[in-house]
Amino acid sequence: MKTFGHLRHTRNASGEIIASKLSPARAKTIGELGGNYGPDRGRQLVVSLDAGDLVTVRPAGTTRSLSMLAVDLYALLLRYEAGRGHLAKARAAKEKRAVRLAQRRQEAAERRLTR
């Protein structure tokens, strides 16, 4: 399994490397937050993969962060996709129902006219 990030060296007073610490992989998003995010609008997001399978997201230039286990994030994304599929089915059923009801109204109006 590939590890993300890089090793950051710790040096002593004479400049010799005495230890290495694994730094998380970090990246900034291309897009910026919109106006719905209040004081964070216009900021990019910094996403990092931390030790212990943590995914951490924070607005650039701030220290406020939100973390979630990668497994939990995957489960959340699966539920989101399932919900989108369910909503698409519901919208299609609603559209079919609207067409059916409009047809019924039209037929009822024509029956009233032909009496």
What does this structure look like?
By secondary structure, this protein is an alpha+beta fold. It has a domain at 69-115. Helix content is 39%, strand content 33%. The chain has one helix and six strands. It has one helix spanning 70-114; strands at 6-11, 17-23, 25-32, 44-50, 54-59, 66-69. The strands form two sheets. A four-stranded antiparallel β-sheet has the order 3-4-5-6. A two-stranded antiparallel sheet has the order 1-2. It is elongated, with a radius of gyration of 27 Å.
Main traits of this protein?
single chain; 115 residues; alpha+beta; four-stranded antiparallel β-sheet; two-stranded antiparallel ribbon; 6 strands; elongated
Largest sheet: 4 strands, antiparallel
Strand order of the largest sheet: 3-4-5-6
Query: What general outline do the C-alpha atoms trace?
Result: elongated
- Mean pLDDT over the full residue set: 88
Number of strands: 6
**Cα radius of gyration in angstroms:** 27 Å
How much of the sequence lies in strands comes to: 25-35%
Number of helices: 1
Report how far apart the termini are: 78 Å
Order of helices and strands: EEEEEEH
